[in-house]
Amino acid sequence: MNRVSPAAELERVTFRYPGSTDGLPVLDDVSLRIEADDYLGLVGPNGGGKTTLLKILLGLLVPGAGTVKVFGRPPAEVRTSIGYVPQHAEIDTSVPATVLDVVLVGRLSRSSWGVRFGSEHIEAGMGALSRTGVEDLAHRSIRELSGGQRQRVLIARALASETAILLLDEPTAGVDAPMEQSLHELLSRLNERLPIVVVSHDISFVSTHVKRVACLNRQLVCHPASEITTEMIADAYAGPAQLRYVQHADECPASYQDEEDQS
């Protein structure tokens, strides 16, 4: 399924939350096509609709106007094929669970025995851990892991349900620069097998690692990921680095936001 093109498509989607005080839609006439090999970065200001768009792709929200298809079907019909790592996702470390236990939660929708998992599910869980590079941690307590290791486990949990498209909302928030780089290398490898959409406020990451950039501030415009190099002087980075950013088109709804940020 993961090589069906397009993997997902939104056409003229409008969405507003009930009781909105300003009367403006969060998403206004948004169209987006996600190809089977896409690695799409989704950027824009807070409140611009990024998380709302992900929830519409997941089938958790239904637009007031427009159409949404994932692998040619309504999102709710293929939800088990959509992997999702939400923003600020946390693992309850007070629960005496192993890494594999946490990943197997991603198999619940495919298990006819509830929380009892047979060999098929164990194999799928171990496969997801292998794809994220933490297979050796399978029987470790989740409370023993570093922040970066936990994030890989959360990605493995999202992959465990035979995922064919992966959606991530700020996956590197709160991790240090070397771990952030490691996670981006992981996502690039995963993109060899499935399309990825990642929300990020880090313009330098988005324009460096992804193939396309979708700028969203109620309305949406896509760009190829343009790379323009300058020296990066932030002490938080380990060693020399390069800063890259998106060159916005004049009609892009996020272009004025960048101008404000630089002023």
Looking at the overall shape, the CATH architecture is: 3-Layer(aba) Sandwich
Number of domains: 1
Number of helices: 7
**Average pLDDT score:** 80
Largest sheet: 6 strands, mixed
In percent, how much strand structure appears in the residues? 15-25%
Widest sheet: strand order? 5-6-7-3-8-9
CATH superfamily: P-loop containing nucleotide triphosphate hydrolases
Tell how many strands the DSSP assignment holds: 11
Overall helicity: 25-40%
How would you describe the shape?
globular
Q: What is the H-and-E element order?
A: EEEHEEHHHEHEHEEEEH
Set down the secondary structure blueprint:
Layout lengths: L7 E8 L11 E8 L4 E5 L6 H9 L6 E6 L11 E4 L13 H6 L14 H13 L15 H13 L5 E5 L7 H14 L5 E4 L3 H7 L2 E6 L1 E6 L5 E2 L10 E2 L11 H8 L1
Parallel strand pairs: 3-7, 3-8, 5-6, 6-7
Antiparallel strand pairs: 1-2, 1-4, 8-9, 10-11
Describe the structure.
With 263 residues, this protein is an alpha/beta fold. The protein has a single domain (8-262), classed as Rossmann fold (3-Layer(aba) Sandwich). The protein has 7 helices and 11 strands. The protein has a 6-stranded mixed sheet with strand order 5-6-7-3-8-9, sandwiched between helices. A hairpin with a 1-residue loop joins strand 8 (212-217) and strand 9. Helix 3 (119-131) packs across helix 4 (147-159). The radius of gyration is 19 Å and the shape is globular.
